[in-house]
Every structure is written in C-alpha cells, then in structure tokens.
Amino acid sequence: MTNRAQSSNIGLVLLLALTITGAGVVVAFGSSALADVQDQTSTDRAEHAMTMLDARTAVVGLGEGSVQTVRLGRGDGDYAVESESGWLRIDHANYTDGETEEIYNASLGSVTYRRGGTTVAYQGGGVWRQQAGGTSMVSPPEFHYRGTTLTLPVLRIRSTDAASGDTTATIRQSDELVRVFPNESDTYDATGEPYVNPVRNGTASVTVHSRYYEGWADYFRTRTTGNVSVDEDNRTATVVLETTDIVGSFPYPEKGGSVPVRGIAEGHSVTDFETSIKKDSGTFNNLYVSYYVEKGDRAYEAAVEVPSGIGNNYCDGDEPGSETLTMDVYYDDQSTSEGVHRWSNDSIPSDSGGVQLDCDDGDTVIRIDFTSSEQNLTYGESNVDEDTAIDWDERNESATEKPDPTKFAHEGDDGENTTYHYDDEQTLRILTRHYFAMFGQEFKLRVDHGPGDRGTTQIDTSGSGGVLRYDTIEGGSYITYLHVTENNVTVELD
C-alpha cells in the first residue's frame, strides 16, 4: 500500500515537472517568435519610412522644393545621419592617348536605421537593406541609363545627426545644384577640351564605395549590360560603359591611324560619311587616299586615285581642268568562297559630284562623299594602280578572272535584296552602308595614302577631316551622352 502511494506521488511530481518545463519551452519559443515578428515589423516600418525619405529628398535635391519633412516613426532602433559614409567616382579612361580623367569624386553620405543585426539605409538616392545574408535593394538609386544616355544626379547628404524612438527628419537644400558634366567651363587635363557631349573615345566608369556595395553591384547588373566588377576588400562596385566614340565630325588621323567606330546599330546604319583631304607642301601627283577596315576574316577598303600631272597644279589656273579620277571599293570575307568583291569607276569627273577635287587657298583638296547616291561603281574589276593599304591580289589568289555573283541580302530603306553579276552597277551610298554593316558593333576605320612621284605624298592633317554619322544601338554597354549633377541636402533628426 505504501509503495503504491509513493508511486502515485512520484508520478504527480513528474507530471508537474513536465507541465512546467513544457510551459517554459512554449514561453521561450513564443517570446523568440514574438521578438522576431517585432523585429520584422519594425524593419518593415523603417523601410517604408526610408522610401518616403528617398522621395522627399529627391524633391529637395532636384530643386523641386526647398524643405520637406518625413516622420520616420517610432521604433526600438537608432537613426543616424552621416556626411562622409561612402563615395562615388566617375572616370573617363583612354579619352586620349591612354590618359584617364577623373570627372567626379565625392562622398555620398547616408541616413541609416539600425536594429539588432539589420540596417536600412538611404544612400545615393536609393534605399538598401543590409543583414547577415548580405545587401538587397529596397528602392533604386538615382542612376538612369536609357539607350546610350546616363543621367546621374548625385544626391549627397551634407550633415550629421542622430536620434532614436519617435523621430522626424527635416530635409533642406544645401547649396545650389552643381553641373558636373556637360560643363564647358571644365576641361580635360591632357587636351584642354571642355566637358561636352557626345562623350568620345575610351570608356566611362562609375565606382561606388559603400557598406552596401553588393546592392549597388546588383543594380548595375540589372540596369545596364556594362562590365560590372566588385572589389570585396575595398567594398566597391564599378560599372564600365564604352563610349560610342565618333558620331559627327572627326580630325583626319595620321597615316595608319584610325577613326574608332563603336555602338553602331545593325544593318544599314551609316547616314553620313564624308571626308575632305587637303594637300600640304609635298606632291599630290599619283596620289591615292583610302579608308579601310580589317577585322577577323573580313576586310574593306575604299580608295580614290588622282592621276599623274593634276594633283599639284590643279589649282594653279583660273579654272581648274576637268580631269577624271578613279575610285575602287573592295571587300573580302575569307570565311566564304566568294573571293574579293571589286567595284570601280575610272572616269569620275574631277570638278563635280560625290567624288571630286576642289581648291582651298590654292591647295588641292579631295572631297569624297561615301554616302553619295549620285556616284556609281561597277562590279567586277579594279582600276587603282597604286599599292593600296591591303594587298587585295594576295587575298584573291584562288579567285577566277571574273568574280562570282554576290548577293546583298539586307532589308530596309535601301531595298537592296539583290544579286550582282559582272558589270552590274550600284551607288557608292549602298556600297558604303552595306559593307560597314559587315563588321559588327565596333571596329577601327583606318586611313592610308601614298605614294606620290617621290614617295613623299604630304597631307595637311590639320586642314583635313571628315564627318561620320550612324545610328547607334539601343542599350548595351555603350554611352554617348553623360549628364551628371551634384545635388546637396541636409537632414536633421528631431
């Protein structure tokens, strides 16, 4: 009887112990879950408040209002305003002869909310959330890349402050808007040229140093197809955008030099290609000039030859003589069996038309409009006697005497879905637009000239040049227009 009573008491004690333990576990887990919910709720409120701060700061920073207020809300976290946290730098690399220009470099500042291991931050016109798993973007920064245009108003925080609990932020404009690029009053160090659009040569890069660099990098990857890199040690994210280079006028390069072509759209995208080449103190007799491209298996050259005897004295008389010029256009793709395409005209009047001679202060000038619809060439032969930049005979060793027919299969405004046979004609405009389309989004358009009777053909490069315009690709990793402003604000916490 006694044993049964003892057993009953022990069972009761164990039951009470299990009940108490279970209740404690439930309370412990419940408290932890409740704390997690409270943390999440507080963080969500902070994200919403920071997004409102983002919008109001843009209103003030971009000059649409002088003062704005935002109630950041009541929470257990801490708010802080910093003026020197993070920075943004813009570089223009290889804009000339390997030189790099630092266009802009300044701190960004930030407004942060911290609770436990989570931070919600406003920086650079965006809102970022950072916790153990890394950084994510809540709302995008002021970085707008459309087509080939980058618009970047740099929103900077220029004050420091701190608060906790129920907090209100007051945003005020600090100083006037600063125009960074374009800005004709600022110039490149090496060339003295002003900061103007279009941006030419090399690459433009934006680098952000920030606690939230991972979020910046993800944003760059999703909003551009530029080359994005991350430096973990220095906590930086960089996006590099190549310039579309020459869209407009260009100086005539030295012999063998090039006019870079970047970001050219597919198809017949060349709208205007003209050049003016002026005689210098040397001879223009037997002169030929050419533009040529070599890329992979493909090559192209357009050459004009001035016959012997008229290059030097063409402008000596009251009325220049009506002589004839010769022009050849060549193209070859060694990955095919077609051989070299040869187009020629050896009876071009020198005093008129898309290819002609002219006079400038008594010096002979060759003017070529490669997009002229008035100048025809005939398929099948070549007539330029001088050695051109590319050895076309060497590229054509296995070709027959008469070239095989060739088909231009492009569609579009030119309507040239046509097969050409020996002795067929086509305009210089169609040939230029067609062959340029064979080289992709970027290539180097080089210049050549020579040889003259004494091998001393001289061109006045300062008085020579050209115009090249073409449709550019949309998006991609290219940039043509850069618009950067510095927009300063202060944030006070109450």
From TrEMBL:
Biased composition (Basic and acidic residues): 396-412
Residue ranges of domain DUF7308 in the record: 260-471
Annotated spans, Disordered: 396-419
Any Pfam family hit: DUF7289
Name listed for the protein in its UniProt record: DUF7308 domain-containing protein
Organism name: Halobellus limi
Biological classification of the source: Archaea, Methanobacteriati, Methanobacteriota, Stenosarchaea group, Halobacteria
